[in-house]
């Protein structure tokens, strides 16, 4: 039951149906990082890394890309994944337009206190 409730919390957070800060008191923390807008040639990428605070574990994450002027609507999310064996979520955005333009990347890590991840009592 605890795993089902926990999965539901993560799904609801990811869907944006509740505030990301709502579960901070329950042992879940959301860490969001944005890159500065960066000039990127066609096909070039920028990235953002979100790091969980010490003592917490990465349980999920996500990200988004923003394009400006020439890259509006042409900034592609080409990587959104954890860094193995670390509590880091990395997002990479690529300029898919033929022309140079500005890109911005945003990454967020969903982090949990280890004690809320413990399964007690079997099933």
Provide an overview of this structure.
- With 123 residues, this protein is mostly beta strands.
- The chain contains two helices and seven strands, in the order αβββββββα.
- Strands 1, 2, 4 and 7 form a four-stranded antiparallel beta sheet that branches.
- The longest helix is centred in the first third of the chain and has 14 residues, at 2-15.
- It is elongated.
- The protein starts with a helix and ends in a 6-residue tail after the last helix.
Short description:
This protein is mainly beta and 123 residues long.
| Helical residues, percent | 10-25%
Shape: elongated
Percent in strands: over 45%
Number of strands: 7
Uncertain runs = 1-13
Major β-sheet annotation: 4 strands, antiparallel
Average pLDDT rating: 82
How would you spell out the order of helices and strands? HEEEEEEEH
DSSP helical segment count = 2
Span between termini = 8 Å
Look at the helices and sheets and give the structural class.
Answer: mainly beta
Layout of strands and helices, then pairs:
Blueprint: H1 2-15, E1 28-34, E2 38-40, E3 45-51, E4 57-68, E5 75-82, E6 88-95, E7 101-112, H2 114-117
Antiparallel strand pairs: 1-7, 2-7, 3-6, 4-7, 5-6
């Amino acid at each position: 039951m605890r795993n089902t409730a926990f999965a539901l919390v993560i799904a609801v957070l990811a869907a944006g149906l509740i505030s990301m800060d709502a579960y901070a008191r329950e042992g879940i923390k959301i860490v969001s990082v944005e890159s500065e807008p960066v000039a990127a040639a066609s096909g070039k990428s920028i990235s953002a890394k979100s790091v969980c605070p010490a003592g917490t574990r990465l349980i999920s994450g996500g990200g988004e890309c923003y394009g400006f002027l020439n890259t509006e609507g042409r900034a592609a999310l080409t990587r959104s994944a954890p860094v193995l064996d670390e509590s880091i979520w990395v997002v990479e955005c690529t300029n898919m337009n033929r022309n140079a333009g500005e890109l911005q990347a945003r990454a967020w890590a969903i982090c949990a206190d280890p004690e809320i991840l413990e399964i007690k009592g079997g099933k």
